[in-house]
Specification:
globular, single chain, two-stranded antiparallel ribbon, 23 helices, three-stranded antiparallel beta sheet, mainly alpha, about 10% strand, 11 strands, about 550 residues, about 40% helix
C-alpha cells in the first residue's frame, strides 16, 4: 500500500496554525499552534502534504516542450521555446511561486515538529531529513532555472520576504548538497522500507539527487563517480537498485511502475485518489486523445539508433528514409507513436495509427497530423511512453511518475567517467551496454564497447533516448551549453507533409530562437521584483 493513500492536504490548516499569535490558553474546539504538532497524526499529515507539493506532472512533461524533444503549439511553452519570453511570462512566476510555497511549507514543518513529544526521537529525525530533502530539491530547481536565488532555510516573515537578497548560485548549490548530506544519516535504506512506506525518501534518493546536482555543475565529476558507485556497488547500506526487465513496463505496467527496484524517487499516485491525466492530450485522437498539447519532434526520433548500433546517418546503418521506423532502437516504439504504428490497447487488441494525411482506409478524413492545428499532432508524432492501460476514462492514471531512476545513475556514471578519461569496456558494459541490452538490443554492434568512437556524443544520445519524456532533456542541453545550437532554427516533424513550408519534406513545426547571452537563465518574475527590489534581474531581461 502506498503511503500517499493516507495523504491529507492540510497546508491551509498548517499555515493558519503557524500564523496564530501565541496565547496563554489554547482553544479547545480546534487545533492551534500550541496543540497541532503535539498530535502524531497531524505531524504525518503535514509531512505527506509536503510530499504532495514536491513536484507535479506538468513540471515533468512541460519541460520537454522547451527542449528539442517536443513541441507545444500554444501558451507559455511556445513563447519560451520561440525565444519570446519576458519577465512577465506567467510560467516564470508560476514555477517560482510553486517552489517557494513548497519551501515555505517545509520550513513550517521544520520549525514546529519538535513540539511533538510522543513520537520517538529517531522518527522525528527521519521526518526532518525527508523534509530537508524536499526543501533542497526545491532550491535546486530554483537555481537551475533562475541562477542566483534567495535561500530560505527558515520560515521567514512577510517583512523579510520583501528584502531578502539573492544568493550566488554556487552558494545555493552548496546549501543543497549540505542539506542532502545532513539528511542521509537519518534516512532509511530502500531495503528497510515496509510496503506501506513505499515511495518515501531514502538514502538512495538523497545520494541520487546529489549525483544529479554535482553532474550539472560540470566540474566535480570525480564526486559524481564516487556517489554513483555507492548506489551501484554499496547496495547493502544504501538500497538495492537494478534495471527493470522491461523498459516500457516501467512506465505503463502498474505493478512494475510501482514496485520496480529501478525507481529511486517517484511522484506517488493512487488510482481514484491522487491521479494525473496529461496523457489525454498526448495520445492519438483515434485511441481517445483529446488534443495534441505536446508532440515529439523529428529531432528526437532521429537520435534513436539502428539495431546494429549505428546512427541513421552513418554508413552501413541500413536506414531507409522511405521506411524510417524499422530496425530502430526498441525504445522508439516504447516512446513515440509514428505513422502506421501498431497501438496495443488495454485489452491487448491492436489498432494501426494512420498519421500521414489521407492514408486511413476507414476514416480518411480523420488525419492524425494537422498543420497549424492543436486538434491533431503538428509534428506527425504522438507519445506512447507513460500510456497506462489500466487508466480510467480520459486517461486518468494512478501510475507513478519517475523523478529519478537507476538508469539515470548509470548514465551519470558513464558521463562522469568519460569526462575524466576513464571510460572503458568495463564501464561501458555496466552502463550503456546494460541499458541497451535491457532495451532489447542483441546485435554485437550495439552492445560492444565502440572504443575510439565519439563517446561523448554516444553517451549524450543514449541519455536522450533513455530519458525522453521525463523532463530532463532541457537540463541537459543547458548544462552542456548546446541549447543555442539545438534550440535555434526549426523544430521539425515527420517527412510526409504536403505543406509548402517544409525542409526537404520534413514539417517545420516551430521557428525557435535561443539567445545564449540571455536564455540560459529564466527571468526573475516582474511581480517578485516589484515586491522585493533586492532581487534584481537576470541579464538580458527588463523588469
Amino acid at each position: 500500500m502506498k503511503f500517499l493513500k493516507k495523504l491529507l492536504i492540510v497546508s491551509v490548516a498548517i499555515v493558519a496554525v503557524s500564523g496564530c499569535k501565541k496565547l496563554d490558553i489554547a482553544p479547545t474546539d480546534r487545533f492551534s499552534d500550541l496543540t497541532f504538532w503535539k498530535v502524531d497524526a497531524n505531524v504525518y499529515n503535514a509531512l505527506y502534504n509536503n510530499y504532495g507539493l514536491i513536484y507535479n506532472s506538468a513540471l515533468v512533461f512541460n519541460a520537454e516542450a522547451i527542449s528539442d524533444n517536443a513541441y507545444s503549439p500554444s501558451g507559455d511553452l511556445n513563447i519560451i521555446a520561440s525565444g519570446n519570453a519576458t519577465s512577465l511570462t506567467a510560467k516564470f512566476e508560476g514555477d517560482w511561486g510553486f517552489y517557494y510555497s513548497t519551501i515555505k511549507s517545509c520550513n513550517i514543518f521544520l520549525k514546529n515538529v519538535d513540539q511533538n513529544t510522543t513520537l520517538p526521537a529517531a522518527t522525528i529525525a527521519r521526518l526532518k531529513a525527508e523534509t530537508r530533502f524536499i526543501r533542497a530539491f526545491e532550491h535546486f530547481n530554483l537555481t537551475k532555472w533562475y541562477g542566483d536565488v534567495p535561500i530560505m532555510d527558515h520560515d521567514g516573515t512577510p517583512e523579510e520576504a520583501q528584502v531578502v537578497p539573492r544568493s550566488p548560485k554556487a552558494t545555493v548549490v552548496k546549501f543543497v548538497l549540505d542539506e542532502l548530506e545532513a539528511a542521509i544519516p537519518d534516512l532509511p535504506s530502500k531495503d528497510a522500507l515496509p510496503e506501506a512506506e513505499n515511495g518515501r525518501i531514502t538514502k538512495g534518493a538523497a545520494l541520487a539527487l546529489e549525483a544529479r546536482v554535482l553532474l550539472y555543475q560540470g566540474d566535480r565529476m570525480a564526486d559524481v563517480v564516487a556517489i554513483c558507485e555507492k548506489l551501484m556497488n554499496d547496495q547493502g547500506t544504501n538500497g538495492t537498485y537494478s534495471l527493470a526487465g522491461n523498459y516500457s513496463a516501467l512506465f505503463s505496467d502498474p505493478i512494475v511502475n510501482n514496485t520496480s527496484n529501478e525507481s529511486i524517487l517517484s511522484l506517488q499516485y493512487v488510482p481514484t485518489i491522487r491521479t494525473w491525466n496529461d496523457f489525454w492530450d498526448f495520445a492519438p485522437r483515434t485511441v481517445g486523445g483529446r488534443v495534441s498539447s505536446m508532440a515529439p519532434t523529428q529531432e528526437l526520433v532521429n537520435d534513436y539508433i539502428m539495431l546494429n548500433g549505428k546512427g541513421i546517418t552513418e554508413s552501413g546503418s541500413g536506414y531507409v528514409e522511405s521506411n524510417p521506423y524499422v530496425n530502430r532502437d526498441p525504445r522508439l516504439t516504447a516512446t513515440v507513436v509514428y505513422d502506421r504504428y501498431t497501438w496495443v490497447n488495454a485489452n491487448n487488441s491492436t489498432k494501426t495509427i494512420y498519421i500521414k494525411p489521407g492514408t486511413d482506409p476507414v476514416q480518411p478524413g480523420l488525419d492524425e497530423y494537422s498543420a497549424g492545428s492543436q486538434a491533431a499532432s503538428p509534428t506527425g508524432y504522438y507519445w506512447r511512453k507513460y500510456f497506462d492501460p489500466s487508466a480510467l476514462a480520459n486517461f486518468v492514471s494512478g501510475n507513478n511518475l519517475h523523478l529519478i531512476r537507476y538508469a539515470e545513475i548509470l548514465l551519470d556514471y558513464a558521463e562522469a567517467k568519460q569526462s575524466l578519461g576513464q571510460m572503458d569496456a568495463t564501464v561501458w558494459n555496466k552502463t550503456i551496454g546494460a541499458l541497451r541490452a535491457r532495451a532489447g538490443f542483441t546485435d554485437a554492434g550495439a552492445l560492444t564497447y565502440p572504443g575510439a568512437a565519439d563517446m561523448t556524443n554516444i553517451i549524450r544520445r543514449e541519455r536522450r533516448v533513455e530519458l525522453a519524456m521525463e523532463g530532463l532533456r532541457t537540463d541537459d542541453i543547458r548544462r552542456w551549453k548546446i541549447a543555442e545550437t539545438v534550440m535555434n532554427g526549426y523544430a521539425h516533424g515527420a517527412k510526409f507533409s504536403s505543406d509548402q513550408s517544409t525542409d526537404n519534406g520534413y514539417i517545420r513545426a516551430q521557428s525557435r530562437k535561443f539567445n545564449a547571452q540571455r536564455d540560459y537563465l529564466w527571468a526573475i518574475p516582474a511581480n517578485e521584483i516589484n515586491k522585493n527590489g533586492n532581487l534584481g534581474q537576470n541579464p538580458g531581461y527588463t523588469n
